[in-house]
Amino acid sequence: MKKERIVFLDYLRVFAIIAVIILHVVANDWYGLKVREFNWNVLNVYDSIR
Fold first, then answer.
1. Average pLDDT score over residue span 39-46
2. What is the DSSP letter of 5?
3. Is the pLDDT score of 50 beyond 70?
4. Whole-angstrom distance, CA of residue 25 vs CA of residue 42
5. Measured between alpha carbons, how far is residue 48 from residues 1, 8, 11, 26, 41 in Å?
6. What is the largest CA-CA distance in the chain?
């Protein structure tokens, strides 16, 4: 008996992998910026999406 793949779950897995990569890249620079600068706010939005 062979189980069929659920394509939606494959897409969800790809999205989760990309989200984790973006989170790690953002967190690398986020702590080095001054609070309330434009770049800090942009990185904060990306970090908040997770």
1. 82
2. P
3. no
4. 13
5. 43, 24, 21, 10, 10
6. 58
Q: pTM of the predicted model, to two decimals?
A: 0.61
8-34 pLDDT per residue, tens: 999 999 999 998 888 888 777 777 788
Helix or strand run (H / E) with residue 12: helix 7-30
Give the other-Cβ count within 10 Å of 43's Cβ: 20
Phi, psi at 7, each rounded to 5°: -60, -40
DSSP state of 35: T
Token pair of 41, please?
A: 């706010």
Tokens, residue 39: 């770049």
